[in-house]
From TrEMBL:
Source organism per UniProt: Methyloraptor flagellatus
Protein name: Uncharacterized protein
């Protein structure tokens, strides 16, 4: 008979991915403020199609995706404080930071 008092194995922590999520009405302006606009899709619809595909793939792999609505003021401030340029890596770092803050606040 198995030891009924044995401690249950803890589940591994859930992976949470902060995804920088643009709104249609801000996409053109957000793209223009980046130093790498060529790395973003030309149109919001193209971006949205790919973003949803990435989101679905991550979720199918057991990752919790948190859509982090792009906030140009917060993003610009984050870049300034971190001493980084507004590019793909900065968007990812900003979204990760926002997701961590929100996720940690829910524990």
């Amino acid at each position: 008979m198995a030891n009924a008092g044995a401690a249950k194995a803890e589940a591994p922590p859930m992976k949470v991915y902060g995804f920088c999520w643009f709104k249609r009405d801000q996409y053109v302006a957000a793209r223009a403020m980046m130093i790498d606009p060529q790395d973003l899709f030309d149109t919001y619809d193209e971006w949205l199609h790919e973003a949803r595909a990435i989101e679905a793939k991550a979720q199918s792999e057991g990752v919790r995706v948190m859509r982090i609505r792009f906030d140009p003021v917060s993003f610009a401030w984050f870049c300034r404080v971190q001493g980084i340029l507004p590019d793909n890596q900065a968007r990812a770092a900003w979204a990760a930071s926002e997701a961590k803050e929100r996720y940690d606040g829910k524990k």
